[in-house]
Design a protein that fits this description.
There is one protein chain. The protein has about 140 residues and is an alpha/beta fold. The chain has one domain: Rossmann fold (3-Layer(aba) Sandwich). About 45% of the residues lie in helices and about 15% in strands. It has a 5-stranded parallel beta sheet with strand order 2-1-3-4-5, with helices on both faces. β1 (about 20), α2 and β2 (about 40-45) form a beta-alpha-beta unit. α3 (about 50-55) runs parallel beside α4 (about 75-85). The relative contact order is 0.18.
Length: about 140
């Protein structure tokens, strides 16, 4: 079975493993609600260090990664996840940030992020990102 078929099975069964790496309580709740409304559950990391720890303990298919967080920012966390964690398969990492400058967007892609969405997020944007990167229906 191909990786794409495996991802599709996970999506259809609601077993897509999602991680929200976000320090702001309101943004955490919004992202969690959107994913729950799409039939998906998500774990939560409140900073970059927690996101790296989470990835070391569980396989994630997709990570919604804030850029500005305490202890370790999203760029450093992404580099650590993709370069230092022993993963069978790299997760899709989507930047979620209020800073929409082209410089920040470029840095996100340079460190290995797959996608880039700006805050405030909407259900439509989250669903579109899942569809684009994971063939979410």
């Amino acid at each position: 079975m191909s990786e794409q078929q495996q991802d599709q099975e996970k999506i259809e069964s609601g077993q897509l493993n999602c991680l929200i790496a976000e320090d702001n309580l309101i943004n955490q709740k919004i992202l969690m609600r959107f994913l729950n409304n799409l039939g998906l559950d998500a774990d939560l990391a409140k900073n970059g260090l927690e996101s790296v720890e989470a990835v070391n303990n569980k396989v994630y298919d997709v990570i919604f990664m804030d850029i500005q967080m305490p202890l370790m920012d999203g760029l450093a966390a992404t580099k650590c996840i993709l370069n230092e964690c022993q993963l069978e398969k790299d997760p899709i990492i989507i930047a979620v940030t209020a800073n929409t400058s082209k410089d920040i967007e470029k840095k996100c892609y340079e460190c290995g992020m797959t996608g880039f969405i700006s805050k405030p997020v909407s259900m439509k944007v989250i669903k579109s990102a899942l569809k684009q990167y994971l063939n979410y229906p």
